Amino acid sequence: MLRIGVFGGSFDPVHNGHLLIARAALAEARLDHLLFMPVFIQPFKIDSQMTAGEHRLAMLELALKDEADMSVTDIELRMKEVSYTINSLRVIREKYPKGSVLSFIMGSDMFMMLEKWYKSEELLQEFSFIVASRPGSDDETTDRCAELLRRRFGADIMRLGNERADISSTKIREELKKNKLSEGRIPDAVVKYINENGLYR
Question: What's the gap between Cα 80 and its chain centre?
Fold first, then answer.
């Protein structure tokens, strides 16, 4: 039985905190492979502007070039519509043998909003979830939410014991705009790509 992790997000830009979560998910959930899935339009941020999908995709590919168990799927970028996770996961599921387990990887902040997601009940019943702790989040609150969803929907939910890296794409964009990027936040290849393409200035 294959175990596939799908890590969704804007990745604007991808940073080392994302990679820490991905590595923790691979190890703790014993995943066979992990897919990063950059969003086209987030349902809760329809009016927000993001860097063009081609750039976010390219940065992810650079960040993962030495990660044998990770790759990128452009499924949501190709759809060119509001990205509903359940639709994307159903398409991805068809690419793997019957009986494979797809686990959606997300931060604890987004996990607390999961019941508000499009077709959340079907989503919770059809797929597994891997929840990463985020800076400022309370693990006990996350665990209570997970237990409630297990009771209501029979959901398969795992919380990672990942390192909490105080890194966010928002802070990185602010630092890049001021040309004051702190070291160790994003892979060197991604920094080079950002500079060569004049992003976030």
Answer: 18
Which whole-number Å values give the CA distances from 133 to 17, 19, 35, 119, in the listed order? Answer: 11, 14, 19, 24
Q: Do the Cβ atoms of 103 and 130 come closer than 8 Å?
A: yes
Is 16:184 a contact under the CB 8 Å cutoff? yes
Residues 6+ positions from 190 with CB-CB distance below 8 Å: 13, 14, 15, 59, 62, 63
Q: How does pLDDT run across 8-55, given as a tens digit for each residue? A: 999 999 999 999 999 999 999 999 999 999 999 887 777 678 999 999
Q: Tokens standing for 160?
A: 């990672």
Residue at 190 is within a domain:
no
CATH number of domain containing 143? 3.40.50.620
Domain region containing 118: 3-166
